[in-house]
């Protein structure tokens, strides 16, 4: 879109069309390219228009607000199904927690973008098939494939949400990056909502406690559960109608946490060597090691996706490059430990799932690191880093499909 914005400066009608087609993305991309076109009078006018500080919080249209309220209520009803039908919560929630959130986010974007039936119908079929599949898997708490399917199903649904977000255009690399940015903003907004909700809960329970009424059980079963189910949808609604609320979150995360995480990881590697911790024979340590790896990888992707529009920061790019190298070292240790454990004690669904995930992350990291290395020397290459992230998202989605739908069959539901 950056090139389209620049090329449309002499065509007001085309510029207005780009803005109306996708206001959030237009503002983001225009601000990123503005330093190079700020001498243009049209660009100056648009900059003032896009960045005018509107102090009022926008609540969108009445229809949109009504949609969010109804969808949030239905999400709460699904979360309450174990109570309504006496279903074992330990059976229901691990299998179905993703269906409390993602289908309604998909419905929101499908409705907001007026997606055609040829996109909505396949998404609907996938959701229905996933609901049936995960709930007919043999109920065995010791089944590694069942646990893996339950863990990976929300990730699969997240990828379907991404498909809906980009209006079914699998080749839309910029749309995938905008989806990543949306997820970062949603995490922040949802966290704020949950903190506010937690504060309200403490105050409410405390006030009723003062007058001798214990409403804790009723409150959590009939109010809090609806709030938890609605939080991601309400957060999405606020992010979409008020992008100015969190549009600076990504740069802040990148500038503050990237140096901190980089320093922490370097010290951590030294500490691992000093303490003699052995991921090759310590299963719990290897698990924590992999969770750390996934967290750092997510931070790298989020930081790059969020700072491309601030690509003049050479120091930050260099720091991301260093963080990527350290993470590759961590990935190499984890990967070698998994291979060692497989060679010593044989293959299991858990080991194979972790092995596949680590290989994908390593390949993605190598691509990102290579692009970052080129960006350190030429800051204009930052967009190639973005593309190396966006192009890999479908591959992660394919791996979740393998783990969810093929692993149980390959390992006979063990």
From TrEMBL:
UniProt entry keywords in alphabetical sequence: Membrane, Transmembrane, Transmembrane helix
TM annotation in the entry: 65-85, 92-111, 117-134, 146-166, 186-211, 223-240, 252-274, 286-306, 318-340, 352-373, 393-413
The keyword Membrane is annotated on this UniProt entry: yes
Identification of the protein by name: DUF4153 domain-containing protein
Native source species: Spirosoma soli
């Amino acid at each position: 879109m950056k090139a389209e914005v620049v090329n449309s400066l002499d065509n007001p009608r085309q510029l207005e069309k780009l803005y109306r087609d996708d206001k959030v993305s237009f503002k983001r991309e225009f601000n990123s390219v503005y330093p190079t076109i700020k001498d243009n009078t049209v660009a100056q006018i648009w900059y003032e228009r896009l960045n005018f500080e509107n102090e009022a919080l926008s609540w969108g249209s009445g229809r949109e607000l009504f949609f969010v309220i109804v969808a949030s209520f239905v999400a709460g009803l699904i979360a309450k199904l174990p109570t309504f039908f006496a279903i074992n919560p330990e059976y229901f929630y691990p299998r179905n927690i993703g269906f409390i959130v993602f289908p309604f986010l998909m419905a929101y974007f499908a409705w907001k973008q007026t997606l055609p039936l040829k996109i909505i119908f396949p998404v609907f079929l996938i959701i229905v098939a996933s609901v049936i599949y995960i709930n007919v898997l043999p109920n065995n708490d010791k089944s590694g494939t069942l646990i893996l399917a339950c863990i990976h199903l929300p990730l699969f649904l997240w990828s379907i949400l991404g498909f809906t977000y980009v209006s079914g255009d699998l080749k839309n690399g910029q749309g995938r990056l905008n989806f990543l940015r949306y997820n970062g903003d949603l995490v922040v907004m949802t966290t704020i909502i949950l903190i506010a909700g937690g504060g309200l809960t403490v105050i409410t329970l405390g006030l009723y406690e003062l007058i001798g009424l214990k409403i804790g059980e009723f409150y959590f079963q009939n109010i809090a559960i609806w709030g938890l189910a609605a939080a991601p949808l309400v957060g999405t609604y606020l992010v979409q109608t008020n992008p100015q609320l969190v549009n600076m979150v990504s740069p802040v995360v990148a500038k503050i946490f990237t140096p901190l995480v980089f320093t922490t990881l370097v010290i951590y590697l030294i500490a691992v060597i000093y303490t003699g911790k052995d991921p090759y024979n310590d299963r719990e340590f290897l698990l924590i090691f992999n969770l750390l790896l996934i967290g750092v990888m997510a931070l790298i992707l989020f930081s790059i996706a969020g700072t491309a529009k601030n690509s003049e920061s050479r120091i930050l790019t260099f720091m991301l490059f260093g963080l990527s190298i350290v993470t590759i070292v961590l990935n190499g240790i984890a990967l070698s430990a998994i291979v060692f454990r497989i060679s010593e004690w044989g293959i299991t669904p858990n080991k194979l799932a972790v092995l596949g995930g680590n290989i994908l992350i390593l390949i993605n990291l190598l691509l990102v690191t290579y692009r970052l290395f080129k960006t350190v020397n030429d800051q204009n290459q930052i967009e190639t880093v973005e593309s190396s992230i966006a192009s890999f998202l479908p591959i992660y989605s394919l791996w979740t499909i393998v783990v969810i739908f093929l692993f149980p069959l390959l390992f006979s539901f063990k």
